[in-house]
Design brief:
This protein has 3 helices and 3 strands, in the order αββαβα. It is mainly α.
Length: 115
């Protein structure tokens, strides 16, 4: 009986350590993904429902910077600016839905009239 209890405790400890490592890995991945949604000019995080714009090569920037008269070309590659990046906006819905409840922004998919 004592051996069984010791074995169960060891298994639980291994399971807890594995779960802890997975949670840490998930948090690191989340942090890395969120960093991909930073505007290169103003450093704002473009979480939903913020609009994400792009250049012809797909580099992203926020709506405020895109609409600024000072920004005439892509801040990353100096290429021509294009329109919205709806794919990144949809990906952002998934990336930011995993955040803690108090950090969560109201995540809504782009509506047809916004496309």
């Amino acid at each position: 009986r004592e051996r069984r209890i010791k074995k169960e405790m060891t298994e639980k400890k291994v399971e807890d350590e594995k779960k802890s490592a997975e949670e840490k890995e998930d948090k690191e991945l989340q942090k890395t993904m969120v960093a991909l949604f930073k505007c290169p000019l103003c450093d704002v995080t473009m979480s939903p429902p913020k609009k994400i714009y792009q250049c012809m090569d797909g580099h992203i920037l926020c709506k405020q910077c895109r609409k600024s008269d000072k920004v005439q070309d892509c801040p990353t590659c100096q290429g021509e600016l294009a329109g919205r990046n709806h794919s990144m906006e949809r990906i952002a819905l998934s990336v930011f839905s995993g955040e803690d409840e108090e950090d969560k922004t109201a995540a809504t998919a782009p509506q047809d009239d916004e496309l």
